[in-house]
Design goal:
Blueprint lengths: L1 H4 L3 E4 L3 H13 L5 E4 L2 H6 L7 E5 L7 H10 L5 E6 L3 H13 L3 E7 L4 H11 L3 H7 L6 H9 L3 E10 L5 E12 L3 E3 L5 H6 L3 H21 L5 E6 L8 H13 L6 E5 L9 H12 L3 E7 L6 H6 L4 E4 L11 H16 L3 E4 L5 H10 L3 E2 L8 E2 L3 H20 L1
Helix pairs in contact: 10-11
The protein binds ligand C2E and calcium ion.
C-alpha cells in the first residue's frame, strides 16, 4: 500500500495559488511527499534529492519551463514529467515534442486550472497502484452479496439535518445510505456504491433509498412539518430516461410535493456523453423537483453543467468549508463558489461544518444552508424527532438569550 504514496512529487509554478491548489489535490489523492517551488531556480536547488515526478508550469517569469527542462536534461533527471499550462493546445504539443526529444518521460500535459479527474487519471496511469487503492474499499464486497442485501432490506437510510445559517431553523435532511451488514455492522456507502454502479445495481439501490426517503417525507407532511428530503443520485441513475417516470410515480403515490424532494447529483466519474443525463435532469426540473449539484470545487462538477441545467442548490464541498476562515486558499475557493451560487440564483449549502469557527464564518459570508458534524451527524430516522425538538429548544433559547 505504501508504494505509490512513498513517491516524491515536485510541483513548480510561480503562481502560489495554483501551487496550493495542486498541493491540496495531490494530498486528496493520497500523495504525501509533495514539495512545492515557486521558481525553476528554487526547484533546481532542491534537485539534490531528485523527485520521481515533476509537475511543471511552462510559463514562469524568471526561468520558464522549457529552460527548466534543459537543466533537467543536463542533470540527468531520470524521473517523469507532467506539463501544466494555460497555453493553447498547439503550444503544449510543441513543448511535449521537445521534452520527449530529450528522452524525458513525459506523462502528458494538463490545462490550467487543473481539474481533479484529469490529474487523477494521469497519475493513475503512471502509478497503477493508485487506482486499486481507490477501488480497494469497494472491492471488499462482491456483487451477489450486495444484490442479496438490497433485496433483503439490509440497506437503511440515515439522515443528516440541514439548517438555515441565518436563523438556524431546520430546513430538511439529506439521505445517506448505510448497509446494516449482519456480520460487519454498519457499512458506509464508499464501500458499496462503486460495486452497485459497476454492476448494474445502482438503480435498484436508489429506488430503495428513494422509497424510504419519501415515506419519511409523507410522515412529516401528515403531521404538518414542512421539511425537505434530499436524495443522492449517481450519474448512472441519470443515464436511463425511465428514471424520471419512476421518481415522478413514487412521489405521486406518496402524495408528497416534488418541491420538497431535493435530488443531489455529484459527477463522481467522467461521463463521455452527457446528453441523456442532461435531458433527465431537465425533465426532473420541469416536474418541479429541486436539483442540487454537489462537490462543487473538487473539479468533478464542471461549469458547463451549471450553465446547462437550472440547479436550485449548489453544495460547497467540505474540503473548502472546514477551516476556510483560517486558510486563504480554501477561503478563495469558498468565495468563488458563493459568488457562483449568487450569480446563478442558487442556494449555497456548505457541507462539513465541523466547529464553531466554521459556523461563524458561514454566518459572516451569508451562506444559506449548512450541514456537518457541528450541527448533527447522520442518524436513523427514529432519532430525528428528538433531535429536531432539542435543536429547536436550543435555538429558541439562544434567541431569547440574545433578545434579553
Ligand atoms: P456526500 O453526498 O458528499 O455526503 C456527505 C458525506 O459527508 C457523508 O458521508 C456524510 O456522513 C459526511 N459528513 C457530513 N458532515 C460531515 C462533517 O462535518 N465532517 C465530515 N468529515 N464528514 C461529514 P457518507 O454518508 O459516508 O457518504 C459518502 C458519500 O456516499 C456521499 O457523499 C454520497 O456521494 C454517497 N452516497 C451516500 N448515500 C448515497 C445514495 O443513497 N446514493 C448514492 N448514489 N450515493 C450516496
Ligand atoms: Ca450529497
Amino acid at each position: 500500500m505504501n508504494s505509490p504514496f512513498a513517491i516524491r512529487i515536485m510541483v513548480v509554478d510561480d503562481d502560489s495559488f495554483m501551487l496550493k491548489l495542486l498541493g491540496r489535490q495531490l494530498a486528496g489523492l493520497g500523495f504525501a511527499g509533495v514539495s512545492m517551488h515557486t521558481s525553476g531556480r528554487a526547484a533546481l536547488d532542491a534537485l539534490a534529492s531528485p523527485p520521481d515526478l515533476i509537475l511543471l508550469d511552462l510559463k514562469m517569469p524568471e526561468m520558464d519551463g522549457i529552460e527548466f527542462v534543459r537543466h533537467l536534461v543536463e542533470r540527468g533527471y531520470g524521473g517523469s514529467l507532467v506539463l501544466i499550462s494555460g497555453e493553447d493546445e498547439r503550444m503544449l504539443q510543441a513543448v511535449s515534442t521537445l521534452v520527449r526529444a530529450h528522452s524525458i518521460t513525459l506523462l502528458g500535459y494538463l490545462h490550467k486550472p487543473v481539474q481533479l479527474p484529469a490529474l487523477a487519471a494521469m497519475l493513475a496511469q503512471w502509478a497503477p497502484a493508485l487506482a486499486p487503492r481507490r477501488r480497494e474499499l469497494s472491492a471488499s464486497y462482491d456483487v451477489s452479496t450486495l444484490r442479496a442485501a438490497i433485496a433483503g432490506g439490509e440497506l437503511v437510510n440515515y439522515y443528516q439535518p440541514k439548517v438555515a445559517v441565518s436563523d438556524s431553523r431546520v430546513v430538511g435532511v439529506e439521505t445517506l445510505v448505510r448497509w446494516q451488514h449482519p456480520v460487519d455492522g454498519l457499512v458506509f456507502p464508499d464501500q458499496f456504491i462503486g460495486v452497485a454502479e459497476e454492476n448494474g445495481l445502482i438503480d435498484e439501490m436508489t429506488r430503495c433509498v428513494l422509497r424510504g426517503a419519501l415515506a419519511l417525507l409523507q410522515g412529516w407532511q401528515d403531521t404538518g412539518l414542512n421539511l425537505h428530503v434530499a436524495v443522492n443520485l449517481s450519474m448512472y441513475n441519470l443515464a436511463a430516461p425511465a428514471f424520471v417516470d419512476y421518481v415522478a410515480e413514487q412521489v405521486a403515490q406518496a402524495g408528497v410535493l416534488p418541491g420538497n424532494v431535493v435530488l443531489e447529483v455529484t459527477e463522481s466519474r467522467l461521463m463521455a456523453d452527457l446528453r441523456i443525463p442532461l435531458e433527465v435532469l431537465a425533465r426532473l426540473r420541469l416536474k418541479r423537483f429541486r436539483l442540487s449539484i454537489g462537490d462543487f470545487g473538487t473539479g468533478h462538477s464542471s461549469l458547463a453543467q451549471l450553465r446547462d441545467i437550472p440547479f436550485d442548490e449548489l453544495k460547497i464541498d467540505r474540503g473548502f468549508v472546514h477551516r476556510a476562515s483560517r486558510d486563504a486558499t480554501l477561503r478563495a475557493i469558498f468565495d468563488a463558489s458563493m459568488n457562483m451560487a449568487r450569480q446563478l440564483g442558487m442556494e449555497a449549502v456548505a457541507e462539513g461544518v465541523e466547529d464553531q469557527d466554521d459556523w461563524d464564518f458561514l454566518r459572516s459570508q451569508r451562506c444559506h444552508l449548512a450541514q456537518g458534524y457541528f450541527i448533527a451527524k447522520p442518524m436513523p430516522s427514529a432519532d430525528l424527532p428528538d433531535w429536531i425538538a432539542r435543536w429547536q429548544a436550543k435555538r429558541l433559547g439562544a434567541k431569547e438569550g440574545s433578545a434579553a
